[in-house]
Design a protein that fits this description.
With about 220 residues, this protein is mainly α. Helix content is about 75%, strand content about 0%. It folds into two domains: about 90 residues, no CATH class; about 120 residues, Orthogonal Bundle (Arc Repressor Mutant, subunit A), CATH 1.10.10.
Length: about 220
């Protein structure tokens, strides 16, 4: 009987041992900070608000009673996007009205691949903010990058699913047009157009240097 109680206590203690410590949570946010700031900035469109969202997410996670160690990286991302949404919820609501009568042709609501996400990271965030409204950017991050379901996106944003789906379609159309204009990404995720531009600049600079040397 004592063995049963001992085993029972061990089973109860095991989940507790798998919880991340405050130090591990803080370290995870530090390690992921560049990525977390990026997704927060995509949603908020403001550097100060993005920084605050990451801080708030970190503080909330440290005060949480249970974050499983195995889920820690995913938790940092989820907590950050949720905090970012809270920072600009009024702006997201305001931009939702333009999608009320819109429809979405992507019935499967495709998510972005790792290569597409890497390519997007090379785009100036200011260009994304200028091209997409707060709801479309939020849908792009939540569904496209974080792979939330449309239903979960709608629940988090407190906006009807069909409106979120239409906003996400707008974001997908913009990203597809952007990618088409710049070409497919190369092995490290950089759009090929950027590599061609860089190569042309290097060639041009080399030619100028050679010309200056001959004149001297």
């Amino acid at each position: 009987m004592e063995w049963f109680h001992s085993t029972e206590r061990g089973n109860r203690e095991q989940p507790q041992n798998s919880l991340a410590s405050n130090h591990e949570i803080k370290s995870a946010f530090i390690e992921q900070r560049d990525y977390l700031n990026w997704v927060a900035l995509l949603i908020t469109g403001d550097h100060a608000l993005a920084d605050q969202a990451v801080i708030n997410a970190s503080d909330l996670s440290e005060s949480s009673s249970g974050v499983f160690r195995d889920w820690l990286i995913g938790w940092t991302k989820s907590a950050t996007v949720r905090a970012a949404v809270r920072e600009v919820r009024d702006l997201i609501f305001a931009s939702a009205s333009r999608y009320t009568d819109s429809s979405c042709e992507h019935s499967d609501h495709d998510v972005l691949s790792d290569d597409q996400i890497m390519s997007l990271r090379y785009v100036d965030t200011g260009d994304i903010v200028a091209a997409l409204d707060p709801l479309a950017r939020s849908a792009l991050v939540l569904r496209g990058i974080q792979h939330f379901s449309i239903a979960d996106c709608a629940l988090l944003l407190d906006i009807p699913q069909q409106v979120v789906a239409a906003a996400y379609c707008q974001a997908l159309r913009w990203n597809n047009e952007r990618a088409g204009a710049h070409g497919a990404p190369n092995e490290d995720g950089r759009p090929l157009a950027l590599d061609h531009a860089s190569a042309e600049k290097t060639s041009h600079d080399t030619w100028n240097e050679r010309e200056r040397a001959e004149n001297e």
